[in-house]
Amino acid sequence: MESQVQKYFFKGKVLVLVGARQVGKTTLMKMMLEKYKNVPVLRIDGENPADRELLEDRSLEYLKQVVGESKILIVDESQKIGRIGQSLKLLVDFYGKDLQIVASGSSSVNLLDQTKEPLTGRKYVFEVFPLSFGELSEKDGNYWRKELNSLFIYGSYPGVVTSETLQEKRKLLLEISGSYLYKDILEYQDVRNPEMLRKLLKALALQVGSEVSYNELASLLGIDRGTVERYVDLLEKSYVIFRLSPLTKNKRREIGKSRKIYFCDLGIRNALLNNFSEVDVRTDIGALWENLMIIERMKYRASQEKYVNQYFWRTYDGKEIDLVEEEGGKLRGFEFKWGNKAKVKQEGGFEKVVMVNRENYGDFVGSPNYRLWDGGRFRKIGGK
Known about the structure:
Distance between the termini: 24 Å
CATH superfamily of the largest domain: Winged helix-like DNA-binding domain superfamily/Winged helix DNA-binding domain
CATH class of the largest domain: Mainly Alpha
Structural class: alpha/beta
Shape: globular
Helix content: 25-40%
Number of helices: 18
Strand content: 15-25%
Radius of gyration: 22 Å
CATH architecture of the largest domain: Orthogonal Bundle
């Protein structure tokens, strides 16, 4: 992702990095600066009260004094700085291409809301996820194959991947999956019942790959549906979970109101349930496989800046497709099966429906040897 973001340097835009805590946003910014060792850089940490005051609701003249001779301004945890959007607007309008501003935040519900209006047409937003299969393969081309079971159980947060022992991995995941992961929700979004938020997350963790009913969750937790919807929305904007909506082509036959909810990292999901059992004894392996493939596909598409609409599809008579990608008016379907012998039926209206299993998943998630779907099939571009 480093090169993907870096190519937009000094284009007169604020580069906004959003993603969950501990996914490596600060490390990513440090890596990008390696190319600019001789360029004056100003770093501001939004978690430091003294730093916050430098950008908090200031005039342009004051901001110019803060920037001084700097050519790059890094603002970490910028969602904590009041009226940050207005301050960045003043700076980008004055300096243009002469000052590169990079702002990061751990919750889009705070940062993007603050910058939406002031930075309209003045920013590029990049979502930072836990490490992708492609990134894990940069040092070892087959890492993602060799460590597949570990990725199932412990996920791909950078600190977890580099932990030397299983005990260290578990300890870190349990720490992150506590309130630290959604600290910004508790701090800024008037969530008065943190324990209810944790109970909701556990309920969602048990329903990965299944259709989720907000009414049922509300009844289970003893809260109203509106609160469930609000919490789910906040968790998605904090990059803990993400939702798939149903594709509706025939409103009489297809289910159009339900949602599927997945986790941005399986290690977090397993930590919420305190279930770090090995793959060969898990009863939820099918759901984990589906979750892993969909999030890795999202990471790969983002790295290629290839954006499509994505859905799931199911009819009342039992037909279903786990993931549907819509691009250029064409629909491509994907079914995810942990076993290698399952077959998939071709459904009408879809360009093609592909089974993704342990034999061909490298094609689907964009291993270093493959590229995205091309002309109705995956095309190999090199390697074994």
